[in-house]
Design goal:
This protein is of the alpha/beta class. It is built from 27 helices and 32 strands. An 8-stranded mixed β-sheet has the order 7-6-8-9-10-16-17-18. It has a 5-stranded parallel β-sheet with strand order 2-1-3-4-5, sandwiched between helices. It has a 5-stranded mixed β-sheet with strand order 27-26-28-25-29, sandwiched between helices. A hairpin with a 2-residue loop joins strand 14 (387-392) and strand 15 (395-396). Helix 7 (215-226) crosses helix 8 (239-251) and helix 16 packs antiparallel against helix 18 (657-686). The longest helix has 30 residues, at 657-686. The N and C termini lie far apart (151 Å). 34% of the residues are buried.
C-alpha cells in the first residue's frame, strides 16, 4: 500500500513538472509573468482577494488556470490579460487596494472583491474611473445603481421564488428565518418576505445573528425558538457561522424528527468544504444552490484541480472547488474574449478632476478603454464550465437551481449533498433537467426524490408542533344553560374537568381525522362573567396566565371576532332568527278560508254546468217524468242535483248510462276537493297565520354572553332597556309565558341551533319568523396565524360529511333533530286557489263534453258501433294473422270483385246499417208504435225485426 501511494505521488509530481515546464516555456515566450514579448497588446486587469482565506486561495487558483487555459486554446490572439493580484486581508484593505490598482497599475477592469460587504465602495471607485468592477459573489450592489458594476452570478429573485415554492408545496404556512447580520442578509430577508406574502406564507420570526456572535448568544436564540409552534427554519449565513449554528442546534435537540431546516446558496455552495463535524450535524437539511450542468469540460477541469490540490497538500491548505471558483473561471474567459474583440491600440488614461473644488481626486485616472470593455462584455456569450454565460441587466442569466438533501452518502455534484430535484424559472419543481420536457412539469412537490429529514426519517415535518409540555390547552365555556352543546363538570376532589355535549363531540371527532396526535387539557371559562367576544379578543394575549391554543364550544363565527382570532370552518347551522308566541284568535269565518274566493266560484260554476249536462242527457220522455213536473221544480233540480248526488248516491236518480259516467267523474272530483279542504283547514287551526308586528313596547330576550345583544342595539336599534338576558331554555319559556308587560318578554332573538332545541320542546306554542340575520355558524377559534386552523378545518369537513354527524345530533339533542326541521313553520299556510286544481277541472270539463257528444242520437251510437266493429276486426286480424285474406287472393288472383276481403267489408257495413235500423225501431217503439213491422233494408229481404206484442 505504501509503495502504491508513493508511486501515485510520484506520478502526480511528474505531471505537475511537465505542466510547470510547459508554463515556463509559455512564460518565456510571453516574457514572464504574462508579459508578452511579441506584438501582443497587454490589457491590465486587477484582482482583489483575501489570499489568507480558503475562498480567496481557491478563486485565485481558478483565475490563474482560466487565463492559462484560455491562451493555450487561443494562442493566436493578439491581446493578453495581464493580471495584478492584490491581497486584501481586511475589509478596509479592499478600498485601498482598489485605489492603488486604479492609480498605479492603470487597470481597465477589476475582479473582486470576494465578499458582499466590500463591493459598495469598490464599485463606486470603478464608476468614477469608468472601470468595470466584476464580482462573482452575491451582494447588495446592483447594476441599476452603478452601470460599471457587473455580477457574474444569478439574481437572488429566483432563489426566493424557489424557497416559496418548496414551502408552499410542503404546506408550511409559517417559517422562521435566521440570517447573518449584514446588508446582504437584510436585503435577502426583505426579498424573501415579499415573495412569501404573495404565497400566503408568514415569517413568524426573523432572527439576525452577527458573524462574531458567541455560542451562548446563538444558543439562547435557539432556546427561544423551541418554545414556539413553528418548526420550519431557513438559514442564510456564511459557512463558518452556519456550521456553528447547526452544531448548537443538534446539541439542543432541534435536529430531530418534526423539524425542517432549509439553507440558501450562501451555505449550500460550501458544503464540500465545511467542517466534517458541522456537516454531520446538518443531516436531513434541505437546501438550494445554482445548478452546474455536468460536462466533459467540467469533468476534465475537476480532475486537474484535484491533481493540483494533491501537490499543494504540503502547504497545509484544504481547498475544495465550488461554484464561485467556476464562475471566476468563466469570468476570466469572458474578459479575454471581450478584450480580443476590442483590440485596443493603446490604453491611455485621463486625469479625473473633482467637479466641486477642481482638485485631483487622489490622482485617480479616467479609463478610455473601460466603457468599450463594459459594452463588449454584454455582447459576449459562450458555453462555459457553469453553463451558458450571458449577462442580462448586469447579472448572469438565470438558470436552474439545484435542490439537495444533506445525508451521509454525500453526492457527485459540485458543492456536496444529494441532489433530489431542480427548480426552473419556467417549469417549477422537477426531478430531472431535460431540455425537451422539463418545461411541462407541474410545480408539484411530488416531483422531488425521496427526502431524508432530520431525525433520520422519511416522514415529512408538519411545520409546527405543540411546545413543551406538549398538551393543547382547549378553552371551553362553563355555563348552566344550553348544556346540550357544552356541559362542563368539575370533580371537587380531583379538580378534574369533564366535558360533554355536541361541540365537545365534534372536537373529539376531528382529532381522529388529524394527521397527527394531539394531547389536550380542557380549561373552562365563565361566559356569564366574560362575554364570548371579550374572551375571544383576549385569546391571542400571550401575557395571560393560561393562554389558550384553541377555543371549543358554541362560538359563532363573526367578522368582528375574526380581527383577533382565526376560525375553522363551521360545523353547525347558521343564522339568527326571531321566535314569538302563536296567537290563538280565530274569527267566525275561518271555515271559508281554506279555499280562496275564485275556487269557491269555480266549484259553484262546475256544479251548475254538471246539472245542465245531466239535464240534457236525461231529457228523454221514456226515462223520467220531468216533463210532467212544473218548470220551477225542474230548475231547482238543475242546480241541486250535483249536491244531492253527493248526499244520496242512488242509482235510480239517473237512467242514462252517460249520466252515470258524468256522476262518476263528479264524485272523484268532489272527493279530492273535500280532502284538500279538510287538510288546509286543519293546518290553519294548528299553525298561527297572524303576522308578528314588532312594537317598541315589546321586550326582547337573548342569551347570556351572546353577541345578539350588540346586534339588536346596533342593527335593529332596540333600546337597551327593552332587552333581557336568559341562560336556559326553561327561562326562555317562563319569560315568554309571562309576557313583556308582566316582567317577561314578547320575543326571543337567538341563533338557529338554540331555537331548534327550544321549539323541539315547546314547538306548539311558538313559531319562528322569516326575519333572519346571517351568520356563519359555530366554529373553533385559534390565535391568529395558528397552523392548526388548516388541519382542523379539513377534519371538520370529514366529520360533518360523515355518517356520525347525525348520530351526535340525536345523542345530544334528541331524536328527530336532524330530520325534523322546525323552520318549516315560518312558511305561511295560504288559501287554496282555483289554479291549484286547474288540471282537475280540465279533466271534468273534458269528460262532460265527451258525454254530451257521445249521447247525440244521430252521431254517438254510430261512432260507438264503428269503434266496436273496427276493434273486432283488429282482434281477428291479430288472431289469424291475415292468413284467410292471403289464401283467397291466391285462389282468385284475377277476380278482385269476389275477394273475401271485399265481402267482409260489405258484411261489416251491413251489420252497421242493421244496428242503426234497430236503433230507429226502438226509438219509434218508445213513442207508442209497438205493432209496426219494419223492413230493415229494401234490397235485402232476409233481415227483419219485429217488436214483440205486449202480453
Amino acid at each position: 500500500m505504501v509503495t502504491f501511494k508513493k508511486f501515485l505521488l510520484f506520478f502526480y509530481m511528474f505531471q505537475f513538472l511537465v505542466w510547470d515546464v510547459g508554463e515556463a516555456a509559455a512564460s518565456s515566450r510571453d516574457g514572464g509573468n504574462g508579459t508578452p514579448q511579441r506584438a501582443s497588446v497587454p490589457v491590465h486587469i486587477g484582482v482583489v482577494l483575501n489570499l489568507n482565506s480558503t475562498m480567496g486561495t481557491m478563486v485565485d487558483f481558478c483565475i490563474s488556470m482560466a487565463r492559462d487555459d484560455f491562451y493555450s486554446v487561443h494562442p493566436d490572439y493578439q491581446t493578453r490579460l495581464f493580471l495584478h493580484t492584490k491581497d486584501a486581508k481586511e475589509e478596509l484593505d479592499v478600498v485601498s487596494e482598489v485605489l492603488e490598482l486604479l492609480k498605479k497599475e492603470d487597470v481597465h477592469g477589476i475582479l473582486g472583491p470576494q465578499t458582499s460587504t466590500e463591493d459598495t465602495f469598490a464599485a463606486e471607485l470603478g464608476r468614477k474611473a469608468q472601470v468595470p468592477l466584476i464580482s462573482f459573489t452575491s451582494g447588495t450592489q446592483s447594476h441599476a445603481r452603478n452601470p460599471y458594476f457587473i455580477r457574474t452570478t444569478p439574481d437572488n429573485s429566483n432563489q426566493v421564488k424557489a424557497l416559496a415554492t418548496i414551502c408552499k408545496g410542503f404546506e408550511w404556512h409559517e417559517v422562521v428565518i435566521l440570517y447573518e447580520d449584514t446588508n446582504y442578509g437584510n436585503q435577502f430577508t426583505s426579498e424573501l418576505n415579499r415573495e412569501f406574502l404573495t404565497e400566503d406564507i408568514q415569517l413568524a420570526y426573523m432572527i439576525s445573528i452577527s458573524a462574531s456572535a458567541a455560542d451562548h448568544h446563538i444558543r439562547k436564540e435557539l432556546e427561544n425558538l423551541m418554545n414556539i409552534q413553528t418548526r420550519v427554519f431557513i438559514v442564510h449565513m456564511n459557512p463558518d457561522l452556519g456550521g456553528r449554528l447547526f452544531l448548537l442546534a443538534k446539541r439542543a435537540g432541534m435536529m430531530s424528527e418534526g423539524y425542517a431546516w432549509l439553507v440558501t446558496d450562501s451555505l449550500g455552495n460550501f458544503l464540500n468544504s465545511i467542517d466534517s463535524t458541522a456537516f454531520d450535524s446538518m443531516e436531513g437539511v434541505l437546501g438550494i444552490r445554482p445548478h452546474v450542468p455536468r460536462s466533459e469540460k467540467l469533468k476534465n477541469f475537476e480532475e486537474r484541480w484535484k491533481k493540483n490540490m494533491i501537490l499543494r497538500k504540503s502547504t497545509g491548505e484544504n481547498l475544495e472547488l465550488n461554484v464561485y471558483g467556476i464562475w471566476a473561471y468563466d469570468t476570466v474567459w469572458a474578459l479575454a474574449m471581450a478584450v480580443e474583440k476590442i483590440r485596443p491600440a493603446n490604453s491611455s488614461f485621463l486625469k479625473l478632476k473633482d467637479g466641486k473644488n477642481g482638485s485631483d481626486i487622489s490622482n485617480l485616472k479616467l479609463s478610455q478603454f473601460g466603457p468599450k470593455l463594459l459594452s463588449e462584455l454584454y455582447n459576449t456569450s459562450f458555453l462555459g464550465l457553469s453553463g451558458e454565460f450571458k449577462l442580462i441587466n448586469g447579472q448572469l442569466k438565470s438558470s436552474a437551481l439545484e435542490i439537495f438533501n444533506v445525508i451521509e452518502t454525500g453526492g457527485r455534484t459540485v458543492g456536496g449533498g444529494r441532489t433530489i430535484g431542480y427548480w426552473t424559472p419556467d417549469g417549477g419543481l422537477t426531478r430531472r433537467l431535460d431540455s425537451t420536457d422539463h418545461r411541462t412539469h407541474s410545480a408539484s412537490i411530488k416531483e422531488l426524490k425521496t427526502i431524508v429529514w432530520p431525525g433520520d426519517t422519511f416522514k415529512k415535518p408538519l411545520g409546527w408542533s405543540i411546545p413543551l409540555p406538549g398538551k393543547l390547552k382547549v378553552g371551553i365555556p362553563y355555563k348552566s344553560g344550553f348544556t346540550e352543546f357544552v356541559n362542563v363538570t368539575i370533580d371537587p376532589a380531583t379538580k378534574k374537568v369533564n366535558a360533554a355535549g355536541f361541540s365537545i363531540d365534534v372536537f373529539l371527532s376531528t382529532l381522529q381525522f388529524l394527521p397527527f396526535n394531539i394531547d389536550h387539557d380542557f380549561v373552562p371559562f365563565d361566559p356569564e362573567g366574560t362575554t364570548y367576544s371579550e374572551f375571544i379578543n383576549s385569546l391571542p394575549n400571550k401575557s395571560m396566565e393560561q393562554p389558550f391554543d384553541i377555543m371549543v364550544g358554541d362560538t359563532t363565527i363573526l367578522a368582528d371576532r375574526a380581527r383577533f382570532v382565526d376560525f375553522s370552518l363551521p360545523y353547525s347551522e347558521s343564522g339568527v332568527i326571531w321566535v314569538v308566541k302563536n296567537k290563538q284568535e280565530k274569527d267566525m269565518w275561518m271555515f271559508v278560508k281554506p279555499f280562496r274566493w275564485d275556487l269557491w266560484l269555480t266549484i259553484l260554476a262546475t256544479c251548475i254546468f254538471i246539472g245542465v249536462v245531466l239535464r240534457i242527457l236525461e231529457h228523454r220522455p221514456n226515462c223520467n217524468s220531468d216533463s210532467v213536473r212544473p218548470k220551477r221544480q225542474q230548475l231547482i233540480k238543475l242546480f241541486l242535483f250535483p249536491i244531492a248526488v253527493l248526499a244520496f248516491p242512488e242509482r235510480n236518480m239517473v237512467a242514462n248510462s252517460w249520466s252515470r259516467f258524468v256522476l262518476v267523474v263528479w264524485l272523484f272530483t268532489s272527493y279530492i276537493l273535500m280532502q284538500s279542504y279538510t287538510a288546509n283547514l286543519s293546518a290553519m287551526f294548528t299553525i298561527d297565520q297572524l303576522d308578528f308586528r314588532f312594537s317598541q313596547d315589546y321586550y326582547i330576550g337573548y342569551q347570556v354572553g351572546s353577541f345578539v345583544r350588540d346586534l339588536l342595539i346596533n342593527h335593529h336599534h332596540i333600546s337597551e332597556s327593552k332587552l333581557r338576558e336568559y341562560s336556559s331554555i326553561e327561562k326562555y319559556h317562563d319569560a315568554m309565558t309571562k309576557g313583556g308587560k308582566n316582567g317577561g318578554i314578547d320575543a326571543i332573538v337567538d341563533e338557529i341551533p338554540y331555537m331548534k332545541l327550544f321549539l323541539g320542546r315547546y314547538g306548539s306554542k311558538y313559531k319562528m319568523l322569516e326575519q333572519r340575520y346571517r351568520t356563519e355558524g359555530f366554529g373553533f377559534a385559534f390565535p391568529r396565524e395558528s397552523p392548526l386552523v388548516v388541519h382542523f378545518s379539513r377534519a371538520i369537513l370529514q366529520v360533518t360529511e360523515g355518517p356520525g354527524m347525525a348520530k351526535m345530533e340525536e345523542t345530544n339533542f334528541g331524536p328527530g333533530y336532524s330530520s325534523g326541521n322546525q323552520l318549516d313553520s315560518i312558511n305561511k299556510q295560504t288559501s287554496l286557489k282555483a289554479y291549484n286544481f286547474g288540471g282537475l277541472f280540465i279533466i271534468v270539463g273534458s269528460a262532460l263534453v265527451f258525454a254530451i257528444f257521445c249521447s247525440v242520437p244521430s252521431l254517438g251510437p254510430k261512432l260507438v258501433n264503428l269503434a266496436t266493429v273496427y276493434s273486432l276486426k283488429c282482434c281477428c286480424f291479430l288472431a289469424f294473422g291475415g292468413r284467410g285474406l292471403r289464401t283467397n287472393s291466391m285462389v282468385h288472383p284475377a277476380d278482385s270483385k269476389s275477394s273475401s276481403s271485399e265481402k267482409e267489408v260489405e258484411m261489416s257495413e251491413q251489420i252497421v246499417q242493421n244496428d242503426l235500423a234497430i236503433s230507429d225501431i226502438n226509438h219509434q217503439s218508445g213513442q207508442g208504435n209497438s205493432d209496426v213491422l219494419t223492413e230493415v233494408h229494401e234490397s235485402d229481404k232476409n233481415y227483419e225485426i219485429r217488436h214483440p206484442q205486449p202480453g
